[in-house]
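Let us work through a complete example step by step.
Step 1: write down the sequence.
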Amino acid sequence: MLTTVSQVDPIKVYFPISEQEYLSLAGASQAGPAPNLLKHTGQAPLQLTLSNGSVYPQNGRMLFADRQVDSQTGTIRIVSTFPNPGNVLRPGQFGRVRALVSSKKDALLVPQRAVSELQGRYQIAVVGPGNKINVRFVKVGDRVGDLWLINEGLHPGETVVSEGVAKVRDGAVVNPKADRTAQPTSSQ
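Step 2: predict the structure and record it as tokens.
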């Protein structure tokens, strides 16, 4: 071989997704008009985080999914493309690809440390009237960073216990203090 020719603007980025993620995305793709990773029209933009932790300023888009599942890893390879003005991205570089695959308006998010698992069910301690603890079961959704989406069992504006969860009991009276590390409990 005398030379290798490769295109770097735009550049192709390859990344795997699990078979379960693929099936979930394929189902969403057929269900409605929301942006979807697997649709060629109205696709969700892809975000690339480089190995130094910085976010690449250009959004990418999906080109196609590989034709088969890798039986060794249970993943499907996705091929995407990113604009590369200035040729900052190079073949062989490492990065992490993120895509918005769903959006839930007015979602309730709580710190993961506020949720306890008990025999396959999830519970949360809520501070009620008179600062009394009410331990209740909740249905959790996806994790978002260090937060957990609560689908059922909690209402907007309720105060949850995020520190000392193992020590509180149903009916106990507490002296609640604001959690300075917590983020807001609703998101889009």
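Step 3: interpret the result. The mean pLDDT is 82.
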